[in-house]
Structure formats: C-alpha cells, structure tokens
Write a structure and sequence with these properties.
With 235 residues, this protein is α/β, with parallel strands linked by helices. Helix content is 31%, strand content 19%. It is globular. It holds the Pfam family GDPD.
C-alpha cells in the first residue's frame, strides 16, 4: 500500500513546504502531495493548499486575487523564513514523486502541464483532478501522466469510473466493500484520504492494516513515519 504524504507531510516540517516534501520522501513516502493554483495576473502555477492566504500567511485575501509578486512576497505567520513558491521551483529543487492536487479548472491545465514537461516529470508525477473533463485534457497531452480522481461527492463515482483515470480517491467515511469492488473491477486503484473533512490527514493508525487487508492501494496521511512503522513489512 502506497503512502502519500498529505500536504507534503507534517512529521518534522510545516505543511506544503519543500522541506516537508523532501523529508517525507526520504522517510519512505511514495509521493508527497502539493496543491496547485494560479494568481490573478499570471499563467505561472504556484503551490498553496488554501484558497485564502489568511490561515498560513495572515493576509485575508484569496490567492486568485493576488498578483504573482504579492503571493511570492508572503511570509508564514509562524516562521518568516518560509515563503511560497511555484511549481517550477518545486521541480527545480529536485523534488520528484509528487501528487499535484489541481485546484484549478481543466481549462487552466496548459501552463502546469508545460512545467511538468520542462522538467521531464511525466513519469514521476500524479495529477489529482476534480473534474472528469480534466482526464481527457491530460491524456491528450501525455498518456504517461497518471491521474487520480479527486471526487467531490461519493455519488460522482460512476462519472469517474467511465474515464481512464488510474486511481480514485475515497474519503475514509466513503469506504465500503462495494465501492472497493467496483473500482478494482474497473481496473483502477484506490487511494484513501484518511480522516474526515474536520480531521483530514489523521486517523486511527490501526485502520491502515484494515485498509491493507481490504486491498486499498494507497493512503493519504499526514504522519509518514508513524504510518510506515505501523505498516512495517505489510506494505
């Protein structure tokens, strides 16, 4: 069962930082997750989980309403040495094996796909898409890029099963034998988002062994070191 460091992992470094992603991968994560957005004035994909900069940076403003220069000048509230960065910066730092959760519409995929190609990352990246239309856009660009369906609702399962995505993300509360059977029969893998929207990334670690027995293919979780210790050779 693959381990995906949710928000790049929180074992040692702040979420969604390059340090967190590099550390998680060095500790055995198979992928580190980063979220991709755009500022209002550019086609440069940037890394930021939140829609608004208030929680992390103390500025009550949407990322999509900022200029690129404004965004890159932000400083973390709890550590002023940490600044935001772009997708190009992430790859330039040598970080590979990433899950990119695309917080943009499929019509905006062009620039980020271009950055992936620039860094020859087609074989190491997984793209998390939120719209079924995005599947065809990615496949037409490069069939080597793997796709994870980030469904908004469990009821969207049929829509994504009809696409050629490689994996489907299920929230922990959505897990049931019938969904697992249907997804695997369709030839797709299942990645579980641990926790709930209120406790995202955290779960009872005993669930990992249960999910492994169910045939779950991957889990998004915050604490990679603990997860790896629980799974041990069971991975």
């Amino acid at each position: 069962m693959l381990l995906i460091a949710h928000r790049a992992g929180t074992d040692r470094y702040p979420e969604q930082t390059m340090a967190a992603g590099a550390f998680s991968l060095s500790e055995g994560a198979d992928f580190a997750e980063f979220d991709v957005r755009y500022t209002k004035d550019s086609n440069v994909p940037v890394i930021c989980h939140d829609e608004n900069a208030k929680r992390l940076f103390g500025i009550d403003k949407r990322i999509s309403d900022m200029t690129l220069d404004e965004f890159l000048a932000l400083k973390r509230i709890n550590d002023s040495t940490i600044s935001p960065f772009t997708l190009d910066d992430l790859f330039s730092a040598g970080i590979r094996n990433v899950l990119l959760h695309l917080k943009c519409t499929y019509r905006e995929y062009g620039p980020l796909l271009g950055v992936i190609r620039k860094h020859n990352a087609e074989n190491t990246v997984v793209l998390g898409i939120q719209e079924t239309e995005g599947n065809a856009v990615v496949r037409a660009y490069d069939s080597r890029i793997r796709i994870l369906a980030f469904m908004h609702e469990k009821g969207n399962l049929d829509d994504f099963l009809s696409t050629s995505c490689d994996f489907i993300r299920l929230w922990e509360p959505w897990l049931d034998d019938e969904s697992v059977r249907r997804i695997h029969e369709a030839g797709k893998g299942i990645w579980v988002m641990s926790g709930t929207p209120g406790t995202v990334g955290y779960t009872d670690f005993r669930n990992l062994l249960k999910w492994k027995e169910m045939g779950i293919d991957g889990v998004l979780i915050n604490e990679i070191i603990k997860a790896k210790a629980v799974l041990g050779d069971a991975r």
